[in-house]
Amino acid sequence: MMKKRQILERAGAVFFALALWQAAAMLLNQRILLVTPVSVVRRLGTLLFESGFWSTVGFSFLRIEAGFFLGLFIGTVLAVCSARFHLIETMLWPFMTVAKTVPVASFIIICLIWLDASSLSVFISFLMVFPIVYFNVLQGMKSTDRSMLQMADIFRVSYKRRLFYIYMPQVRPFFTSACAAALGISWKAGIAAEVIGIPNGSIGERLYEAKIYLNTADLLAWTVVIVLISVAFEKLFMKLIQRCFAGLERL
Question: Among 220, 229, 227, which Cα is nearest to 40's?
């Protein structure tokens, strides 16, 4: 009952946002500055049947998600190593501080000197995801109940078993929240990298072209595509993560 009510509330919020958008576009009456939701939906309908649409989506999707999974894997592994060995945490501290605080635009411009434009979104997505996952997983492991660890020391429990039966339940909420935050940021950073690097066949290139030709309908239609893909993948991935944790708990 509560879930149904929540769906209705969110649908109402979306309807209100669209009505506000429609009213603003009608009052402004300037297609270059703001088009109506109807125009965006109409343009989106034609985009779906254009020959290069799916290849463009695939180009950006594969690279951004590759950066996300790379950041997820390396961030988790280094967090586990840092929790085990304080020296590793200390040595990584300056790099992690830089990765966490330097603006994404600075990273993009610097990386353009080193990398090809087509691989830029992979690296930038990785750089944005990596510190989020690292700090969350590390914080989760440091928050583990000390009495449980002392008991594990007394009974000489192996580090592998500690990871699965002591650390993992504690880290789970930190890890899932890190994934939820990192998924959205990876798309924001990845698309920003494509807009600046303008690799051929990317969503970023299509956004840049829409800006150059003052095609607001195209710009907003591609933005809707980005939002839909990002949200759909986030929902799918988070459900998969929850099932994986549930499966590990049953072992």
Answer: 220
